[in-house]
């Protein structure tokens, strides 16, 4: 599993999504992250087939992730149908990774559908998303196949060190959505981050992404701008010192404010009300 991926959350225009994914693959990305609720699994699939057809890469070199939406997590049969729908929309024979998008609905029954699809070879790896430490621990202690990945919000302002320890305990790979702060913080105005970036002749975005990668976290930045796509991938020619890592760690705000929106009942009800099909 690559340590840097390309996300397509909120890229709803099909052509823009397709071209962004192609640009990412040309720039060296091999992990592409989509989801049923994003409404662009089809565009990602088109881009993947074009990349393969034009010789940019082989299918085996790519790592394509999608996620089952909560509407299809009410029971086993709905989850099974949701997996098949994702595969059909993408036009792919398999996903390299498939996740439960939220810890909502009957996610234990939905997980059994993922386990069966994994054993059938339709999903090469299975995991979860937005499972906080206490939920993940209970889940791992209960299910037959332990999730291989947990995709959660991870950035300097919400570092979740305790959650990382829980994932390590269960051998679950952490993966970060919103690795640059999700637009709710201002890392680009932080003087300490700028000093570290200047010391390495890098940008603040590259420093923040590198910080997570050095913690063993896979990151999924997103952009539709070519220069940002390339910038976010160019983090392999420098390393942060232990002191720099420690300085960045001081930005962590912990579980405060809107950082943990998944603990908000209104957010949960909102997710459960989002329908992606009849």
Automatic annotation (TrEMBL):
Question: What region holds the NADP-dependent oxidoreductase domain?
Answer: 11-251
InterPro entries annotated for this entry? AKR (IPR020471), Aldo/ket_reductase_CS (IPR018170), NAD(P)_OxRdtase_dom_sf (IPR036812), NADP_OxRdtase_dom (IPR023210)
Pfam family membership, one: Aldo_ket_red
Q: What class of enzyme is it?
A: oxidoreductase
One term of GO molecular function: methylglyoxal reductase (NADPH) (acetol producing) activity
Assigned keywords, A-Z: NADP, Oxidoreductase
The entry's family comment says: Belongs to the aldo/keto reductase family.
User: Can you say what this protein is called?
Assistant: Aldo/keto reductase
Question: What organism is this sequence from?
Answer: Salmonella enterica I
Its organism's taxonomic lineage begins at: Bacteria, Pseudomonadati, Pseudomonadota, Gammaproteobacteria, Enterobacterales
Gene transcribed to yield this protein? yvgN
């Amino acid at each position: 599993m690559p340590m840097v991926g390309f996300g397509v959350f909120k890229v709803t225009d099909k052509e823009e999504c397709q071209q962004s994914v192609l640009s990412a693959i040309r720039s060296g990305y091999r992990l592409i992250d989509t989801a049923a609720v994003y409404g662009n699994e089809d565009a990602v699939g088109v881009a993947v087939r074009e990349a393969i057809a034009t010789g940019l890469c082989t299918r085996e070199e790519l790592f394509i992730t999608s996620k089952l939406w909560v509407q299809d997590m009410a029971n086993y049969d709905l989850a099974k149908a949701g997996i098949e729908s994702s595969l059909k929309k993408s036009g792919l024979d398999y996903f390299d990774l498939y996740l439960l998008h939220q810890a909502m609905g009957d996610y234990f029954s939905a997980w059994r559908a993922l386990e069966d699809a994994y054993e059938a070879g339709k999903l090469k790896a299975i995991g979860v998303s937005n499972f906080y430490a206490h939920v993940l621990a209970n889940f791992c202690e209960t299910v037959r196949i332990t999730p291989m990945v947990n995709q959660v919000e991870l950035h300097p302002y919400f570092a979740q060190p305790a959650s990382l320890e829980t994932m390590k305990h269960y051998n679950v790979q952490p993966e970060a959505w919103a690795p640059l702060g999700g637009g709710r913080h201002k890392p680009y105005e932080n003087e300490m981050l700028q000093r570290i970036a200047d010391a390495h002749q890098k940008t603040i975005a590259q420093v923040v992404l590198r910080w997570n990668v050095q913690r063993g976290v896979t990151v999924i930045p997103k952009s539709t701008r070519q220069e940002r796509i390339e910038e976010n991938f160019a983090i392999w020619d420098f390393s942060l010192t232990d002191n720099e890592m420690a300085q960045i760690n001081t930005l962590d705000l912990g579980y405060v404010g809107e950082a943990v929106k998944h603990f908000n009942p209104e957010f949960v009800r909102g997710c459960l009300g989002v329908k992606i099909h009849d």
